[in-house]
Amino acid sequence: MDEDLVARIVLSVVMLGSGVLLVWMARAAASGKLKRNQVAGIRIPSTMSSDEAWLAAHVRAKRPTMFAGLASMASAVFALLPVSVPLVVTGVSVGCVVMLGLVLYGARVGSRAAQQVTATRDAAAEQL
Protein backbone atom coordinates (compact mmCIF):
# COMPACT_ATOMS: atom_id res chain seq x y z
CA MET A 1 0.00 0.00 0.00
CA ASP A 2 1.22 3.48 -0.85
CA GLU A 3 2.60 5.51 2.11
CA ASP A 4 0.51 8.54 1.14
CA LEU A 5 -2.66 6.47 1.17
CA VAL A 6 -1.86 5.02 4.60
CA ALA A 7 -1.21 8.52 5.97
CA ARG A 8 -4.46 9.79 4.46
CA ILE A 9 -6.42 6.90 5.97
CA VAL A 10 -4.89 7.45 9.42
CA LEU A 11 -5.55 11.20 9.19
CA SER A 12 -9.11 10.56 8.08
CA VAL A 13 -9.77 8.12 10.94
CA VAL A 14 -8.36 10.58 13.52
CA MET A 15 -10.42 13.50 12.16
CA LEU A 16 -13.57 11.38 11.91
CA GLY A 17 -13.10 10.05 15.44
CA SER A 18 -12.56 13.57 16.77
CA GLY A 19 -15.67 14.81 15.03
CA VAL A 20 -17.83 11.96 16.28
CA LEU A 21 -16.58 12.50 19.84
CA LEU A 22 -17.29 16.24 19.66
CA VAL A 23 -20.84 15.69 18.42
CA TRP A 24 -21.48 13.00 21.04
CA MET A 25 -20.05 15.14 23.82
CA ALA A 26 -22.08 18.20 22.76
CA ARG A 27 -25.32 16.22 22.75
CA ALA A 28 -24.63 14.29 25.94
CA ALA A 29 -23.51 17.31 27.97
CA ALA A 30 -26.38 19.52 26.77
CA SER A 31 -28.93 16.82 27.58
CA GLY A 32 -27.56 16.31 31.09
CA LYS A 33 -26.32 12.77 30.40
CA LEU A 34 -22.68 13.84 30.67
CA LYS A 35 -22.27 15.08 34.23
CA ARG A 36 -19.50 17.31 35.58
CA ASN A 37 -16.20 15.46 35.23
CA GLN A 38 -12.47 15.96 34.76
CA VAL A 39 -12.26 14.36 31.29
CA ALA A 40 -14.80 15.69 28.79
CA GLY A 41 -16.70 18.93 28.39
CA ILE A 42 -16.02 22.57 29.14
CA ARG A 43 -13.93 22.21 32.28
CA ILE A 44 -13.20 25.70 33.53
CA PRO A 45 -13.88 27.16 37.00
CA SER A 46 -17.21 28.76 36.03
CA THR A 47 -18.63 25.53 34.59
CA MET A 48 -17.28 23.30 37.33
CA SER A 49 -18.79 25.44 40.11
CA SER A 50 -22.15 23.63 40.07
CA ASP A 51 -24.25 21.14 38.15
CA GLU A 52 -26.54 23.98 37.07
CA ALA A 53 -23.63 26.01 35.68
CA TRP A 54 -22.26 22.91 33.91
CA LEU A 55 -25.58 22.23 32.22
CA ALA A 56 -26.21 25.87 31.27
CA ALA A 57 -22.76 26.12 29.69
CA HIS A 58 -23.22 22.99 27.62
CA VAL A 59 -26.73 23.84 26.51
CA ARG A 60 -25.42 27.18 25.23
CA ALA A 61 -22.30 25.63 23.66
CA LYS A 62 -24.09 22.72 21.98
CA ARG A 63 -24.52 24.27 18.53
CA PRO A 64 -20.96 25.57 18.01
CA THR A 65 -19.51 22.35 19.43
CA MET A 66 -21.60 20.24 17.08
CA PHE A 67 -20.51 22.38 14.13
CA ALA A 68 -16.91 21.87 15.27
CA GLY A 69 -17.49 18.13 15.10
CA LEU A 70 -18.97 18.44 11.63
CA ALA A 71 -15.94 20.48 10.51
CA SER A 72 -13.71 17.70 11.76
CA MET A 73 -15.76 15.09 9.90
CA ALA A 74 -15.60 17.16 6.71
CA SER A 75 -11.82 17.23 7.09
CA ALA A 76 -11.87 13.45 7.36
CA VAL A 77 -13.64 13.18 4.03
CA PHE A 78 -11.30 15.76 2.46
CA ALA A 79 -8.28 13.71 3.55
CA LEU A 80 -9.43 10.85 1.32
CA LEU A 81 -10.07 12.88 -1.83
CA PRO A 82 -7.83 12.08 -4.80
CA VAL A 83 -6.03 15.43 -4.74
CA SER A 84 -2.40 16.40 -4.19
CA VAL A 85 -0.82 16.04 -0.75
CA PRO A 86 -0.31 19.81 -0.33
CA LEU A 87 -4.01 20.34 -1.06
CA VAL A 88 -4.96 17.66 1.50
CA VAL A 89 -2.70 19.28 4.11
CA THR A 90 -4.22 22.69 3.39
CA GLY A 91 -7.80 21.41 3.46
CA VAL A 92 -7.38 19.43 6.68
CA SER A 93 -5.52 22.33 8.30
CA VAL A 94 -8.37 24.70 7.44
CA GLY A 95 -10.81 22.17 8.91
CA CYS A 96 -8.74 21.98 12.10
CA VAL A 97 -8.63 25.76 12.44
CA VAL A 98 -12.41 25.97 11.95
CA MET A 99 -12.93 23.16 14.47
CA LEU A 100 -10.68 24.85 17.03
CA GLY A 101 -12.33 28.23 16.50
CA LEU A 102 -15.78 26.76 17.03
CA VAL A 103 -14.71 24.83 20.13
CA LEU A 104 -13.17 27.98 21.63
CA TYR A 105 -16.27 30.00 20.76
CA GLY A 106 -18.45 27.33 22.39
CA ALA A 107 -16.28 27.46 25.51
CA ARG A 108 -16.59 31.25 25.59
CA VAL A 109 -20.38 31.36 25.30
CA GLY A 110 -20.67 28.40 27.65
CA SER A 111 -18.53 30.16 30.23
CA ARG A 112 -20.75 33.23 30.03
CA ALA A 113 -23.87 31.10 30.53
CA ALA A 114 -22.28 29.41 33.56
CA GLN A 115 -21.29 32.78 35.01
CA GLN A 116 -24.88 34.00 34.62
CA VAL A 117 -26.17 30.98 36.55
CA THR A 118 -23.64 31.59 39.31
CA ALA A 119 -24.43 35.31 39.48
CA THR A 120 -28.17 34.63 39.65
CA ARG A 121 -27.67 32.02 42.35
CA ASP A 122 -25.42 34.36 44.37
CA ALA A 123 -27.90 37.24 44.02
CA ALA A 124 -30.74 35.01 45.23
CA ALA A 125 -28.65 33.88 48.19
CA GLU A 126 -27.98 37.51 49.14
CA GLN A 127 -31.72 38.21 49.08
CA LEU A 128 -32.27 35.64 51.83
From TrEMBL:
Which InterPro entries does UniProt cross-reference here? SdpI/YhfL
Q: Source organism lineage?
A: Bacteria, Bacillati, Actinomycetota, Actinomycetes, Micrococcales
- Taxonomic superkingdom: Bacteria
Give UniProt keywords alphabetically. Answer: Membrane, Transmembrane, Transmembrane helix
Instruction: Locate the transmembrane regions by residue number.
Output: 6-26, 64-81, 87-107
Name of the protein: SdpI/YhfL family protein
